[in-house]
């Protein structure tokens, strides 16, 4: 039983007020066929919308408080909330409109099932009921057609079937035959008449003949007021038997609904998805390339750099101290003397015989080549065209820079530019350092400790000073035949024959003479000229003369007991300059004249990239359980270089991604606009859904589902296109850099990008979706 008490509804447009319902009081029986007749604009649609809960009756005006009420089965609706009305519409009301209001992108059966989706019936029951309703209206054979494939009468039957499917208590029909010819109208009226046998039917019409013929009660309506009622009903107060079942649309149904909608505008959706996937494409490619380059650095580059030795020098920087965080201290009016930074970070490696023995026991399968730098100076003489001359294996001009030459004694040349000493192979059969990395240009490979080699650079040149120091008269730009170099001999003079003792324990080099030259039996020979095999790799040995560490060992052996060494041992005073020395300076001086066979530096060449870690682990093992000061720290040049390049690459990647992200924002805005367009287009659908009892949430869900689908689609599209684009990019990079397959998209990155695309499009579409949900259902349905 339905009761309307003093209902009012007015529309305010500008200054004009339209009283669409003006104090309407009427009651309806549970089963009857009521026809409402009245002229256009008299408020009939408004009445149906208010009864159906699509529109709210007024409760107050600027000046009045109205206590109108709509009572359903004894239940007042005064305190109904939005969701109560939604549930009421879904549970109790069936709407049939003049213009059918079917959703054009859904099939007939899907249209009929729509309302049941909201009431949460299982799929099988929905289908069963929809088929039953369609059978009842005589459309059993048309269920897979779309609305635009049906005639007007058939579409109205579908609308009736949709209203019936949920078995509503009240069927509201707003001019259901208004757009139909007489014959079809008769059929529809018969159908509605039949339905009024077990429910209340309220039908608006302006055809009095049809009303006379079919309705059981005729109400005349004018200016929002009831003029006459052919069969009034006086209700008796009854207790409330009203019950509400909440409505809810599942995410899955929202997705299905939006999917069929998207399928009706494939072209536009594809274009939008493509446009918005451009951001994803660019980020994916940047990530793939950065990923690939990083891999290249980690493998190819590290492999190349693995040739670089792990070095152990007398002094090194202890980077573990760098971790000390700088604490913020308030200004307290005093200055603290901080420990000297250099002293703090400088670590002295005490290379002992024990350590040397330990290093020598390294597995040749990991590092077969080790060189030892001895700080010893070679006393060299050469016979240049019959003239005996002092010789030096360095690019520093004698006498040019005193301090520099003394510092070259102090620090063996183990800078990154390469070493002057080439390593000895632990296992002669396994590998030969020189032959592996260098190409012989002339002469032969060194076979004895006294064999020297001349290393030239990629332009086949060496520093002019290196040649001058070998006693050759040459100017920059002049050429020297290989023949003139290969086979050249030099002699190493023992300290006792080289130095002259002066009074007060001072020593000076003797004047060069033929006798001095003849005194030595240690004859060195340039056996060959070599240069790096691979033009890309960096120098392992420095340009100029390089020799084997065994030669240095021999020299030390020869000079260990020389007078100059014995004398220097006993005094703090430098026996050559007369200056007083501290312990470090004295040690260096002693080493330079050959007092110690302990190396000042060790260079360990790992066999390959994989074995380097083993070598490092072996070196770290020595330090286990040792005091900080007793530890021996190594330097791994290739590691610091690769990590530096890695950091650079990371920085470049971040900048590129930031640029690419801008296009993501653009696509987000585009999706927002698309959703907004979709909201406008689907206004009628929103009205229909609301008429069926959809909540605001459900409407939001439908549009969120739409952007979700587009987001996933554009993400997948972007990743797929990026993967395809990587092929030509890789072949381009291959032709430029010779590196194959640089771009490789990490699957995890691909997934994350799809996720980001989905989230961003959903964010972009959410505001229009909320706007859609706020749309007034009655207005939405009036829009055409
Ligand atoms: P009927 O269905 O009997 O033709 P309606 O119920 O559609 O009449 O409209 C009743 C009156 O209310 C009309 O004057 C109409 O212009 C006005 N009206 C209906 N809806 C609105 C609205 N959303 N805003 C302003 N006026 C409206
Ligand atoms: Mg109307």
Automatic annotation (TrEMBL):
CDD domains hit by this protein: ABC_MJ0796_LolCDE_FtsE
Protein species of origin: Lactobacillus xylocopicola
Pfam family, one: FtsX
Molecular function, one GO term: ATP binding
Segments traversing the membrane: 271-293, 648-674, 705-727, 747-767
Family membership: Belongs to the ABC transporter superfamily. Macrolide exporter (TC 3.A.1.122) family.
Protein name: ABC transporter ATP-binding protein
ABC transporter domain boundaries: 2-248
